[in-house]
Specification:
- The structure is a single chain.
- By secondary structure, the protein is α/β, with parallel strands linked by helices.
- It has two domains: 261 residues, Rossmann fold; 89 residues, Helicase, Ruva Protein, domain 3 (Orthogonal Bundle).
- The chain is built from 16 helices and nine strands.
- The strands form two sheets. Strands 2-4-5-1-6-3-7 form a seven-stranded mixed beta sheet, with helices on both faces.
Amino acid sequence: MFVLIIGGLSAACLATMVLLARGGLRPNGKATGGSAEAGDRGPRRTPAPQRPGVSRPPRRDRWAASLPLDATVTFAAERRAAGIDEVLADLDADMVGLVPVKKKVQEIAALLLVDRARNRFGLEAPRPNLHMCFTGPPGTGKTTVALRMAELLHRLGYIEQGQLVHAMRDDLVGEYIGQTAPKTKRTLGRAMGGVLFIDEAYYLYRDSDSKDYGQEAIEILLQVMENDRDKLVVILAGYKNRMDHFFESNPGMSSRIAHHLDFAAYEVDELAAIGRLMLEQARYYLSEQAEVAFRHYLTRQMQEPRFANARSVRNELERARLRHAHRLASDPDRSWNRDDLMRIEPTDIFDGHSGWLPEPRQP
């Protein structure tokens, strides 16, 4: 099976919490990030996660044997057999907030577990529609949840490979007549058996340009979504208002989406927690004064139109690491201990912006 995710993230690489946390303060890109230049290379493909000691047999072997009519099942045993508990636990542990999103993922997992159990009793039903839409501002975890969803579907046997293929408009739509269909089909072919994530899906459709070829790509996608439902799940992700307009302009796409997950912007407490998680992954920490300074910085930056939630947190902590390193290296004859090498101070947060520092608390 194959999953298609159409998204509205920016071209920046890390868009989500776990990737932000795990790649956190290291110079890496989003696991699925980056679109290909037209004609140069295809969409980026991220293989299904492989955990130590865990191997997945072919899909046909993962469906358990049929059960007699008087048999019983427990879903604790079904979850263990499918190996999904660790996927859900990782999602909960690695992503701050997003309670409604996590609940929806758990509901989808429950739907598929029950569907598997019903099939074992011979209670066949049409395959559940797994096409989805993720909406929300950048840096709120859409790509990470897509990765987790791909792994979940793979473990439950609803996709055969579980890889995530990330694409953008340029990977699907050609500049000239005759280019769009081959590009779209080539991208779909790379994603077969896994997940296709299309960033900023609304750019596929340009109603102001009658000569645009995006509609041709959309029509191919619609056909595959309908005819290859056993191989394809589509997840559309992007800014909510733009996706709403996209659906209004393309009702056929809207009617094929069964699950909507809305990723809300983070509150300052959640952003601070995300920052701490990133620093812990990189073996740094904020001093008590730096924690206050960092929250003050976040409160200011959240008002800026280009603020990108967890992505902006990551970028600021990268700058704080840079200032921290320069501060220590600028005093070459001083002895620094292990804690000094880990501790971020307020000046590392607000270097060059001393006027931004919060007033010290009175004793």
